[in-house]
């Protein structure tokens, strides 16, 4: 087993999976724009800490999850409810509270760290995704499920996620003067994205019934 190869593949797959607009990367960009890059990085570190545990759970229980699709179905239903609620909040509630709140909400770096942990923990999709990637690597003889192999995979996954989040923060900082980077637009984007995720999840649940 080549631990460097395991790290690189885990890094690349997680990086690519985090690149499409989603709750974590859009929120990281929003915090970086509204407050500063440091708080955006603290949010991302909190999110990646949870991703470490998610990747660890996924690799340890990869075989179990593959043989028990009912567990993945439960995760899908939970994710559907969570993302539907988040979508409603950002589309209809956040814009109202924004108008009422004229003072800048100053949050500490520590609170943003825990904010990242919270949002990452309710995003359960990485667990079945990481389990699938881990099983695929194991089937090709690239990954072995022992301590060094699992550690290499987990570090690659968390590093890939962090780099993707950092790229989002830098990208939106470059276009911060454009309309798409406004607070209202960011709320709508997050709401639309989580709404689409909820719809796709519902479709997959109904398809498997």
Automatic annotation (TrEMBL):
Segments crossing the lipid bilayer: 6-28, 40-62, 74-92, 113-138, 150-168, 188-206
KW Transmembrane (keyword) present: yes
Subcellular location: Cell membrane
Topology relative to the membrane: Multi-pass membrane protein
Keywords: Cell membrane, Membrane, Transmembrane, Transmembrane helix
InterPro entries noted in UniProt: LeuE-type
Pfam annotation, one family: LysE
Chief localisation class: membrane
Protein's recorded name: LysE family transporter
Source organism (scientific name): Bizionia hallyeonensis
Lineage of source species: Bacteria, Pseudomonadati, Bacteroidota, Flavobacteriia, Flavobacteriales
């Amino acid at each position: 087993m080549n631990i460097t190869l395991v790290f690189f593949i885990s890094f690349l797959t997680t990086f690519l999976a985090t690149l499409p607009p989603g709750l974590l990367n859009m929120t990281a960009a929003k915090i970086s724009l509204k407050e500063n890059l440091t708080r955006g990085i603290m949010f991302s570190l909190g999110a990646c800490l949870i991703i470490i545990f998610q990747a660890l759970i996924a690799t340890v229980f990869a075989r179990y999850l593959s043989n028990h699709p009912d567990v993945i179905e439960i995760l899908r239903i939970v994710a559907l409810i969570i993302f539907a609620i988040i979508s409603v909040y950002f589309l209809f509630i956040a814009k109202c509270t924004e108008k009422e709140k004229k003072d800048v909400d100053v949050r500490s770096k520590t609170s943003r760290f825990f904010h990242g942990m919270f949002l990452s923990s309710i995003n359960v999709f990485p667990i079945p995704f990481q389990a699938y990637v881990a099983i695929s690597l194991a089937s090709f003889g690239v990954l072995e499920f022992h301590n060094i192999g699992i550690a290499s995979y987990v570090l690659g996954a968390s590093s890939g996620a962090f780099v993707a989040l950092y790229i989002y923060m830098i990208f939106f900082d470059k276009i911060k003067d454009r309309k798409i980077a406004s607070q209202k637009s960011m709320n709508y984007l997050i709401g639309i994205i989580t709404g689409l995720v909820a719809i796709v999840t519902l479709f997959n649940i109904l398809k498997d019934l």
